[in-house]
Amino acid sequence: MKTIGLIGGMSWESTSLYYSLLNNEVKKLLGAPHSSKCLLYSVDFGEIAKLQHAGDWNALATLMIEAGQSLEKGGADFIVLCTNTMHKLADDIIKNTSIPFLHIADATAEAILSEKIKTVALLGTKFTMEEDFLINKLKKHGLSVIIPELEERNVIHRVIYEELVNGIVSDISRKKYLEIMNSLSLNGAEGFILGCTEIGMLINKENTNMKLFDTTEIHSKAAVIYSLSNLNDS
User: Fold this and answer.
1) pLDDT digits over 123-140, tens only?
2) What does pTM read for this prediction?
3) Does the active-site annotation cover 38?
């Protein structure tokens, strides 16, 4: 089994979901008492969020590179960045480490295409929805990506940073998200990328019949498949 190197803490709420999903998936595939081999480099999200909103991506790149290099030195066989927004810096991590990097957009695109869906709506932080680092990656897989209107993006972003990263799950916010998603559905969205690793805490299959693609779940499962690839080959 390959050792997974996790760059987490963005937020720790969603990173805890990664850890749970990784171990449950290994147990499901290999049987109890098997669990995932992984290393976790967990950052201080207070520092990260401050730098994000200040637009200091150079400082953030330095932090992400240090995290990736620490995992490599610690014996990780590949890197999983446990956040969508910080994939803005994926290339910086890749260029400064020598182990594989499992990109969240590649894993998500494969899951979407397996459902024969072409047009998806992307929900996430404003960084993820408004910049092209994730959208372009998805488009390279042949997907059409739509995003909410500005006011709706503001709502989605606020709920993530003021509520979800602090473990707050509000019925009022869930209702707002579902209203936004219904509007996007009317505009052609066949499915919805929960493109922030915390959104799955708020929206899941119990809340809606709309097709959901939870990046936290998808990324975790892809990591396990890659981790076990040597076992599968043998």
Assistant:
1) 999 999 999 999 999 999
2) 0.92
3) no
